[in-house]
Specification:
The longest helix is centred in the N-terminal third of the chain and has 21 residues, at 2-22. The chain contains 2 helices and 8 strands; from the N terminus they run αββαββββββ. β4 and β5 (120-127) form a beta hairpin. The protein has helices at 2-22, 76-83, and strands spanning 44-47, 56-60, 90-102, 108-115, 120-127, 131-146, 154-161, 164-169.
Length: 172
């Protein structure tokens, strides 16, 4: 009798696992993060540094725009990284998003970066899952993005935390 119960339990567990893995939705293999198809994906480098004082996104397309970054807490290496940007072919996108949950276990990630025909650089990021808690976390990054022809004139960040989307745009 115990063998039959064990086999039944295993069968239900495998069925549940397969249903979860094979389910079709906007969210891909990472739980709570969308599976995106980007039209004009661009290469980028990421620096985990607090580049903004407030929520949102900032676009820097020339050396003159670097002062829009909150660089008072940059290390010498951060400053060097920013100064190595070739603004003839690269730009900087900084962003900051604040949420709540257990900060020790979250895994933020850039899902991709694209530049649209409207000259908007779009950054997509996601925090897959947070442990419950009343602690606030700040998710920040500075990206160096390569572009072709003319530099973008606008930037957006679409960020998902546990499936909930927030979008920030420059100039808003």
């Amino acid at each position: 009798m115990k063998r039959r119960e064990a086999l039944s339990t295993i069968s239900v567990g495998v069925s549940t696992l397969l249903t979860g893995c094979l389910g079709d939705s906007i969210f891909g293999p990472e739980r709570n993060c969308p599976d995106l198809t980007l039209e004009n994906e661009r290469p980028y480098e990421q620096r985990d540094v607090d580049a903004l004082d407030d929520e949102g996104v900032v676009l820097v397309t020339s050396r003159d725009g670097i002062d829009r970054l909150a660089d008072e807490q940059f290390t010498d290496e951060d400053d060097q990284w920013v100064n190595e940007t070739d603004f003839e072919t690269e730009l900087l996108v900084g962003f900051r998003h604040t949420g709540s949950g257990n900060v020790q276990d979250f895994e933020p990630g850039i899902l991709g970066v694209e530049v649209g025909s409207d000259r908007t650089v779009r950054v997509y990021s996601c925090i897959e899952e947070l442990e419950p808690g009343d602690v606030a976390f700040v998710y920040t990054a500075l990206l160096r993005v390569r572009y072709e022809d003319h530099p973008p004139t606008r930037a957006t960040l679409s960020h998902w935390t546990e499936g909930e989307k927030v979008t920030y745009a420059t100039g808003e």
